[in-house]
Batch of 2 targets.
Target 1
Amino acid sequence: MTELNKLALKILENGKGILAADESTGTMTKRLQSVKIVSTAENRILFRETLFSSKEMKECIGGVILYDETIKQNASNGKNISKFISDIGSIAGIKVDTGAKQLAGSPDEKITEGLDGLRERLKEYSKLGAKFTKWRGVYNISDKYPSKLSIDTNAHALARYAALVQECNMVPIVEPEVLMDGDHSADDCFEKTSAVIKKCFEELILHKVDLSGVILKPNMILAGNDSKNQITNEETAKLTVKCLKESVPNEVPGIAFLSGGQTELQATENLNLINKFNDTNFIMSYSYGRALQQSALKHWAKDVKDIQGTQKVFDHRARMCTLAAQGKWSKELENN
Ligand code: 5MM
């Protein structure tokens, strides 16, 4: 067992998942403005520290993905944020891509940037305490998309990223996100997500990435938001497991889903069903942003001094997701 494999397993052990708190300043500003909070560096760290110091962090959250600004900030007790997180018993990670930009040659699609200077930035993040990293490729679905160009270029970038990250002894989270936007069917989502994931692994292998030291962060298989033909949660779970079983090499230790705009409840229920149907060796857990933070953010925005109340809301979400990652969640537990 390699050190990277041990680390990947540790992040996802015992139903633990990942808190994706890596919103770039632009995204975080949108989130804060939606609840009428001014987006200052102080407010951003205040909300995040409120979550990071919650009770369930220790037992439910194996890793926290940070953004460049956050990993350079201190908690209110003066500790560097990575140290603050590791003292709680979780592990700090860092988003290292610099965002999805217009793809030359196919301007309606995106290519994720950030490879230039990455080796040096990784060394800096490692010194700041990061043990794992994240890079997100984004794909949209329509009749002609994702194009071969988008699938190939994003897979290439993800593989170059992952190879550099492992060279720096950190675990790369590989996140190919096929978006929910549109009126496509679940079958389209299945077919296109499968093609995207297969190409990612083809490139990861070509770039000699140790697959046992990688965490995959995919979307679940869902019909598009605007589709009239929505599928049941059971169907989502079965199709998601089938897609991953067919597309992900066995060496990969763990899969941590993104929530992608699902409600907190839907993301939890689907993860629970996925684990009930999971007949693979992969750990199937979560790496949620919105599905872990939404309710807590709304609560906090009503009274930013109500730290305990906000933490209670977050703790419940984290506990429910961890139960779902073990197939032990139920509506009764959710409502108690
Ligand atoms: C938390 O949001 C992350 C990125 O934000 P930017 O677009 O500002 O870079 C995002 O990558 C996130 O980690 C994943 O999409 C999962 O988040 P959700 O909310 O979909 O679970």
Target 2
Amino acid sequence: MPQSLIGIFGGTFNPVHVGHVRAAIEVAEALGLGGVEFVPAARPPHKCGEPMLDFPFRERLCRLAVEDVPGFSVNAMEAGRPGPSFTWDTLETLGRERPETAFCFILGQADLPQLPTWKNGLALGRLAHLAVHSREGQGLEAFAAFMSAHAREMEAVPTADPARWNLPQGRVMTFVPITRLDVSASDVRERWRRGRRIHGLVAEAVRHELENHAEALEAVWGRRAPA
Ligand code: ATP
């Protein structure tokens, strides 16, 4: 992979937590990415039923979470697009607007089984390299099983390394094992509602921002029990 490769980490980030930041750091280090852009979904098609903080707030939390990580940034491009936030559209726009840059889309292993339901999900490798990182102990076997089942539609060809498949136009799809951190945004929201401490689950700057906007949070996540 070229050194100028930029990682694109999409997510709802409702809120962004330490599992997200560690995953992006470990993928960036494993693949030698030149940087990672967190791309909060404006209107995630698969999470429409969830109580979601508004986009500017989730974006601000992401900025606070990555401000100290060299090479990391937040890209708010999905806010400007009407309708559901499809990754296909995001990668197509990035390719059109920054033709000199190669992109690597990053997703967690837990999301891989849903890829066939995404807009042109199995064709994303035509627009970007793909990196799949482990989540909650799901590892290489699950990745290999998915790839074997969908290789034809993805135009993916196995290599001697089971963690690396070749995609069209010289791109690759790689499995990256990362440190297991069983943190989820739903768990953070649930603890917050129950009046529990969320120290250590989110960056301190993110926690301060959440505390400073407790009223706004209650309006979305639900009433908070007294600590
Ligand atoms: P929720 O609990 O609300 O479903 P989430 O914690 O899974 O949210 P998302 O914003 O949906 O967060 O996740 C964005 C991406 O980060 C996804 O690819 C997801 O698999 C990955 N991810 C989230 N949490 C972790 C974690 N603890 N370890 C590794 N990857 C993670």
